[in-house]
Amino acid sequence: MAAIAVSLATSLTSAVVPSSLTSFVFNKLNSAPCLRITFSVSRFSSYRGGGKLMAHSLVRATLGLTQPANIDVPKIALSAKEIDVAEWKGDILAVGVTEKDMTKDDSKRFENSLLKNLDAKLGGHLSEASSEEDFTGKPGQSLVLRVPGHGAKRIGLIGLGKSATNAYAFRNFGEAIAAAAKTAQASNVGIVLASSGSTSNESKLNIASAIASGTVLGTYEDNRYKSDSKKPVLKSVDILGFGTGPELDKKLKYAEDVSSAVIFGKELVNSPANVLTPAVLAEEATKIASTYSDVLSATILNAEQCKELKMGSYLGVAAASDNPPHFIHLCYKPPSGPIKAKLALVGKGLTFDSGGYNIKTGPGCSIELMKFDMGGSAAVLGAAKAIGQVKPPGVEVHFIVAACENMISGTGMRPGDIVTASNGKTIEVNNTDAEGRLTLADALIYACNQGAEKIIDLATLTGACVVALGPSIAGVFTPSDELANEVFSAAEASGEKLWRMPLEESYWESMKSGVADMVNTGGRQGGAITAALFLKQFVDEKVQWMHIDIAGPVWNEKNRTATGFGIQTLVEWVRQHSS
After folding, report:
1. Whose CA is closest to 477, among 533, 438, 421, 437?
2. Between residues 8 and 517, which one has the greater pLDDT?
3. What integer pLDDT is reported at residue 30 of this predicted model?
4. 55, 65, 192, 532: least CB-packed within 10 angstroms?
């Protein structure tokens, strides 16, 4: 705990808070009237493999008396084994098959050697069942057979399509395995690919990692807010046919660490705004730093400190809410060795967005989902958790979130108001529902002031980006080809979908104000582009910067739950910068 600097005001008492403490109080001493901020702590979440981690601190009794249940996220043991697949013993042997693997000879027997061997052990039942069920290996297809009397109690064929060549496909394969395991109430699963012989060693490591990650994430269900829920049964996963050794074990451990961070990010986004306030988000960040205090430190700035830093743009958004803003800054420094790169990750942290006076109304406004408007901050804090576990050498990373709510009250920001960012630029607020960029403006300036050489911000920023790219793809905006190449390489390795969008400078004309330096929104046409151009005004020209609009992929509408999007790409990008 000694490595954590929790700063709430210049005149606040400094405090180190033991994890066993259930409440603590900060007093602002040298002012009148006295400002007292009380945090009461309840259990929020747990880290996979690391015991209890998250604890919610609430500035007041939670609206609706809702508290997340204290549910442990079960640990799934990941291991690599090199044995005869037909001899593996367990609940389900899951075999990934392409459409080519399902090719049969004239006698309707498999041509693929692994499938032929399994089918022979089963007396031809596998080939027979695949024909009867019209299983051809297409994506999304699965066939599970009970095979009593053999090593595996069930054998499942999982379709990979015409080919599986990237992390996205193999992660989906892992998720399909998790679904089959849930249906069968399996406690252990063996996973093998029907065809993997010609794959390079590096590719095998990446494939095994993607499959393991997909299986862990597919198994997880966020049941903290349900009165009754079933616990996942899956306890162990054996990766077969990829070899063994310390290199593969390290890769599987990396997949486990990053997956636990994604789960943490999902839990943050899933938590409703009456539970996850700005203060609670700040406490979550502080707890991450305390857990990994050998490499992470935390600074939490209150409204008065932000005022001293002239963050008028951020504070303008926060002004209407009874829940005060909390500016979060975590800093990662490796345990040893020189620092060769300084990076910053900035996340939009609106724990709820009503739209302000331009309130969200009408069909499709999605106001009931605006708890996910802090999805960018969840990605950044999830990445911080993973980086704290992985501890990459040679790189310093700043994790920055300007957390607040966008509400309506007599003290709130009005359409037509002019706010001043911490770099002195003035902004005419022509729409209070374009608030995320106002908070990010001061956060980006702060990131530049930390000496970051490269900055990535993530935000659920515009509906326009969802219209352009749909629900599964994030939009990328950057003037730097070098940074674009780095991040797209990291995204490909992580199985997350990005698409580069134009930064059309001529569109800036629509962002000009007659009375201030700029307005905060330029209208509906090209809305995602003008939003990115707005953010660009607050980044030092010497800094390589990227904006990622995650408004689409932050949420899975089918499952009505968060995705944890962005965390895996960010961690991989940082890892690629480590020495």
Report:
1. 533
2. 517
3. 35
4. 65
How much is the pTM?
A: 0.89
Catalytic residue among 360, 391, 497, 500: 360
Tell me 13's DSSP state: P
Give the pLDDT score at 197. 64
Between strands 544-549 and 561-562, the pairing is unpaired
Q: What are the b/e assignments for 72-105, b being 16+ CB within 10 Å?
A: ebebbebebeeeebbebebbbbbbbbbbebbebe
Is 360 annotated in the active site?
yes
Q: Are the CB atoms for 147 and 122 separated by under 8 Å? A: yes
Band (pLDDT 50/70/90 cuts) for residue 66 is: confident
Q: Confirm whether 108 is a catalytic residue.
A: no
Q: Which of 579, 574, 575 is nearest to 340 (CA)?
A: 579
**pLDDT value, residue 149:** 79
Inter-CA distances, 56 with 22, 352, 358, 560, Å:
10, 17, 31, 23
Choosing from 28, 437, 454, 536, the catalytic residue is: 437
| Tokens (6 digits) for 83 | 């044995």
Half-sphere exposure of 386 (CA within 13 A, CB side): 30
Average pLDDT over residues 277-288: 97
Query: 27 to each of 22, 62, 353, 385, how far by Cα in Å?
Result: 17, 22, 29, 29
Which has the closest alpha carbon to 553: 479, 468, 488?
A: 468
**104's tokens:** 């049969």
> What's the average model confidence in pLDDT over 147-164?
92
Q: What is residue 64's predicted lDDT score, i.e. its pLDDT?
A: 87
Q: How far apart, in whole angstroms, are the C-alpha atoms of residue 338 and residue 71?
A: 40
Q: Round to whole Å and give the CA distance between 520 and 374.
A: 19
Sequence-distant (6+) residues with CB within 8 A of 57 are: 39, 40, 41, 279, 280, 283
Over 50: is that where the pLDDT of 17 sits?
Answer: no
CA 159 – CA 101 distance, rounded (Å): 10
Beta-strand relationship, 188-193 and 236-240: parallel
Question: Is the pLDDT at 323 greater than 50, yes or no?
Answer: yes
The 10s digit of each residue's pLDDT in 496-542 is: 999 999 999 999 999 999 999 999 999 889 999 999 999 999 999 99
Tokens of 449: 């002031």
Alpha carbon of residue 61 to chain centroid: 28
Residue 36, burial from CB neighbour count under 10 angstroms (0-12, 13-18, 19+): exposed
pLDDT digit string, tens, across residues 34-63: 333 333 333 333 333 333 444 334 444 468
Residues whose CB is less than 8 angstroms from the CB of residue 193 and which lie 6 or more positions away in sequence, other chains included: 95, 96, 207, 241
Strand arrangement of the beta sheet that strand 188-193 belongs to: 77-81, 236-240, 188-193, 90-97, 152-159, 142-146
Among 496, 463, 573, smallest CA distance to 171 is for: 496
